[in-house]
Write a structure and sequence with these properties.
The complex is a heterodimer.
Chain A (H helix, E strand, L loop, with lengths): L16 H8 L4 H4 L3 H26 L3 H41 L13 E11 L4 H6 L7 E9 L2 E4 L3 E3 L5 E13 L5 E9 L11 H10 L2 H10 L29 E8 L8 E5 L1 E2 L14 E10 H4 L3 E9 L8 E8 L2 E5 L3 H5 L5 E4 L5 E7 L6 E9 L2 E8 L3 H21 L27 H4 L6 H24 L5 H18 L1 H6 L4 H4 L12 H13 L9 H5 L3 H10 L11 H15 L11 H7 L1 H7 L4 H11 L2 H11 L2 H4 L10 H12 L7 E3 L1
Antiparallel strand pairs in A: 1-5, 1-10, 2-3, 2-4, 2-6, 6-7, 7-9, 8-10, 11-12, 11-17, 12-13, 13-14, 15-16, 16-17
Helix pairs in contact in A: 3-4, 6-7, 12-16, 13-16, 13-18, 18-21, 18-22
Chain B lengths: L13 E6 L1 E3 L2 E3 L2 E5 L19 E6 L4 H5 L6 E5 L2 E2 L5 H8 L6 E7 L1 H16 L1
Antiparallel strand pairs in B: 1-8, 2-3, 4-5, 5-6, 6-7, 6-8
Classes of the chains: A alpha+beta, B alpha+beta.
Amino acid sequence: MFCRNQTARATVARGSALEMEIRRGKFRKSVFLDTSQDSDIQKKIDHEIRMRDGACKLLAACSQRDQALEAAKSLQTCSTRIMAYMSELQRMKEAQVMQKVTRRSSDAGPMDDRLPCKGKVAISDLRIPLMWKDTEYFKNKGELHRCAVFCLLQLGGEIFDTDMVIVDRTLTDICFDNTIVFSEAGPGFELRVELYSCCSEDDYSAGSTPRKLASKLSSSLGRSAGKKLRAAMEPGPCSPVSNGGAAPLLLPVPSVPGPKYHLLAHTTLSLSHVQDSFRTHDLTISGNEECSYWLPLYGSMCCRLAAQPHCMTQQMMSGCLKVKQCGGDPQSWTKVYAVLKGTSLFCYHRQEDVEANIEPAFTIGINKDTRIRASEKDPHSKVQNICISNQYGGEEVTHTLTTDSREDTHRWMEAFWQHFYDMSQWKQCCDDLMKIELPSPRKPAPVTPKQGSLYHEMVIESSDDLSSTVSDILARRMQELELRSQLGTSPTWMSVFEENNAKSAGRTRHCTSRLSGHSPCTPHRLPRSPASPHRCPQLGLLSSDASLTSDSDSHCSTSPCSQHHGWPEPSSSFSLLSSSPSRLRPRTLSLDAKLSTLRGRGYGGGGAFQCPCQPPPSSLLAPLPISSRSPRSQRSTQTTLSCSSSTSSNSSSNSEGSHSPESSEGVPFSRPSPARRSLRNLRARLDPRNWLQSQV
Amino acid sequence: MSFVPGQPVTAVVQRIEIQKLRQGNNLILGFSIGGGIDQDPGQNPFSEDKTDKGIYVTRITPGGPADVAGLMMGDKIMQVNGWDMTMVTHDKARKRLTKKNEDVVRLLVTRKSLEEAVKHSMGTYHKQ
């Protein structure tokens, strides 16, 4: 961390007078601070010191390993920030002193040096590949050696840290998802990336038993005892400086028991590494295999480093101009409001157009191939013109600008010169605007305890949104059926529907708990059936009940009553189903997604997780597709229902069930035409039980 | 789309950029995938070569983000956001598509009709 040739870092030598005075508190820093800039930094330093004290206290107080690691990480970040601010302060003081000296000695002439504009630099998608021994990686033997790692990124006075990642030998790369944006960076910036790691074992006692001795002891003591002892005797930091290889400290870092991060690798990125895509950079690795915090790094780091200089994103100059294209009518001056931004000079008709985001009247390109010069004095006016020449294809196009006064011309020329200077300094960043995605504030992902199995990591989504979808569908169905019934067509099945409905509605009122048992499937079935408003208002109730209890009982117990009520449920639903033989049923996107999710759940195909309530839903789903096939005769469906509860028909009906929703693209429930049989075959082959499919 | 193990795979691909759709707490793409190196390739109804263990699109939700972007059923997904999908497990493929912090996925997909289109256009060129 301490580089002699880095001018940005100044050091206060340990034991120097300045340091002692500061420590003793003899001199308040305000004595040295004249300007508001200094007081800003002072405030930042104080803030960081407070944060550091808080982190120390937290570290001393917390018992859980995760908290300790996080606290240690903030401690490290705060210490680094404090040092950076201190050195910044030191530098500013030195600059002040130098200024005073020069003022005294000679007349300070006007500064001719042009300063390039600042810009935003963003680094994202950091990925550091690891290189485990293949025996370690594939065989997965021995105890899992885990390390907690994070990256510290420093540019100028800004220091950011990434989130902490726990690394063990099951990972091939260390990935940091954060996007870090530095706001004020000059083109000569140096972005220092440091990777800190800390061994994440149970005991943090800072022993410094050499590793060989530790391994000997552990092997001679027997496996489990040895493991514990080895963890307890983790070899201390291997680098000679024990406080993380940091520069000499200005203020004493309180030594707190707990995890300590050590510098594992570092690298420095600059303007030449900036590109709009991913690039690989080399890392300098400190530490060796004997250290406890060691990780086998491959030696490189991939990241996307993008820069947006202000000359590309902000308006550098704007004002009123008169433009004439060369070769045109010498008197045809167009009055425009011109804005210099990025690689073009945008000419709008009026100033208000800029805010209104109206397209500019025309655009003159300003890039590194453009030539701008002031022309000779126009005999008609006293003001010099500015000529801008570009090469478009093989032609050279020249625009001539003129302003109202000499000062304006001078200002525009100055602006153009500054713009060219910026572009020459920022080089490849000015070819095109690089996109920087600002990290969107999002809720931190809930930390789930690692249970080891993939299935445990699956989160079963609540079907809250399903209830709204279902009721929407139902409401629409009700409206549609209402229209139909108004037309006078009342199919014969309606009567069956009615009487069944009364039964089922009555039943469902009581058996909400049992209904919850079918919750994954009832919402599935309901939307497929149209409902007439007068005849089954209870369906709305049905759906809401289902959805309300769906969450609590998604892992339903196969209670005997659920089986028993497997009967009346399907009968009502099928009759509802059969009401839509000749009607195209438009399907909604969310419904589709939900249906397939539910189907997936039911068959264990979606997201590869097994729903424990698989048998009952599938048995209930079975009658559905079959009835969809032949809605005509209720008796046939009744008979199929009779054998639906038996598992023998389950297998056959399941395979049909997997594709029935799709086959209803066009004509939902009519007899499948020969053309669709090939589709059916396809659907049969897409049975998730044979070939896993996931909905994304 | 057959490949020789160990040799580079060449295919005519189409770039498809899908904007994920937010639904409550989820970001959905609106299609289903099948396949993977841990799955039985013989069951894949879309693959020409029945030893192809690649990731195929098995279903598109009509009107969904994938449908809008031009993804078609039967497409083989070669890359997702730069990550290779020709030699991944099924779950890895699913995870690469469903990262919560990504709003857009850029796929490279290939299908038989693309190759035929290229051949056809080349054929007409030769005729001239």
